[in-house]
Amino acid sequence: MKPVDTGFEGLALYPRLLDEAAQQALVSALMRAFEGTPPYRPRMPRTGKPWSIHQTNFGPLGWVSRPDGYGYAPKNEVNDASWPAIPAALLALWDDLAAYPAPPECCLVNLYDHPGARMGLHRDEDEQALDAPVVSLSLGDTCIFRVGGFARSDRSKSFRLSSGDVLVMGGPSRLRFHGVDRLVFGSSRLIPGGGRINLTLRRVTRPG
Ligand code: MD3
Ligand code: FE
Predict the structure, then answer these.
(1) In a domain, 208, yes or no
(2) Mutation test of ligand 1: which of 134, 142, 204 has the most ligand atoms closer than 8 Å to its C-beta?
(3) Which domain holds residue 47?
(4) Which residue's CA lies nearest to atom 23 of ligand 1?
(5) Each residue's pLDDT tens digit in the chain (208 positions)?
(6) Does residue 64 lie within any of the structural domains?
(7) How many angstroms separate the Cα of 172 from the Cα of each of 5, 120, 136?
(8) Fewest C-beta in 10 Å: which of 2, 18, 74, 94?
């Protein structure tokens, strides 16, 4: 499977890497798994302002945004339970695409569950293993995704991410600014009730 050229070295986009059946199976598995790790609205550090999306995690470390800061935590603050294991289909994606000698420790789940859901421009920089790529899968509605440079004000490019698309961000693109400007709400019928689910796999600690 060959990625399309994004024009950014280290940023690879694999359109529709997962077919309809694989997407359906994953959504069913996610709906069951959410019973043990309910999606919640994260809050901004300091201000406590709630995000427009819901989040949850799989894996030994979950990425959290809480009034006391951003970072990785071994437990869900909703029910104080460990996050469930990362689904096998996602571990297989990492094995196929990450070219990294250790498994991911975090699968952050972002649920864009209403037409106004978005994610502001940011960098993924809370990991120690910055030599590992980030592998991200989109399910459901298409979104307009923006990738910039290494300063917030650098020029940026927009891409559409559709259901089944996988994005790998590594090498010189690992610390680029990026965000989700908006959804094309209702563009897919994959997810009951509509919306988009993004699953982002990350290695957090340095292996070994
Ligand atoms: C490009 N999620 O969870 S994933 C995130 O669609 C996040 O929910 C977005 O940004 C979403 O942190 C985008 C794709 C992504 C992730 C990391 C990147 C793109 C990236 C790092 C560098 C460049
Ligand atoms: Fe990100």
Answers:
(1) no
(2) 134
(3) 4-202
(4) 176
(5) 789 989 999 999 999 999 999 999 999 999 999 998 999 999 999 999 999 999 999 999 999 999 999 999 999 988 899 999 999 999 999 999 999 999 999 999 999 999 999 999 999 999 999 999 999 999 999 999 999 999 999 999 999 999 999 999 999 999 999 999 999 999 999 999 999 999 999 999 999 8
(6) yes
(7) 15, 21, 17
(8) 2
Amino acid at 164: G
Distance 162 CA to ligand 1 centre (A): 14
Question: Ligand 1 centre from 178 Cα, in Å?
Answer: 6
Rounded Cα distance, 21 and 137, in Å: 15
Return phi, psi of residue 103, to 5°. Answer: -75, 165
Q: Of ligand 1's atoms, which has the minimum distance to the CA of residue 200?
A: 3
Q: Give the integer Cα–Cα distance in Å for 69 and 92.
A: 31
Please tell me the distance from the alpha carbon of residue 121 to that of residue 175, in angstroms, as a whole number.
12
CATH of the domain at 179: 2.60.120.590
Residue 17 resides in a domain: yes
* Residue 169 in domain: yes
* Ligand 2 geometric centre to CA of 65 (Å): 13
Which residues are placed with Cβ below 5 angstroms of ligand 2, an ion?
Answer: 124
Domain count, the chain: 1
What residues flank ligand 1, with Cβ below 6 Å?
Answer: 11, 108, 110, 119, 124, 134, 136, 147, 167, 169, 173, 176, 178, 180, 198, 200
Q: What are phi and psi of 37, to 5 degrees?
A: -145, 75
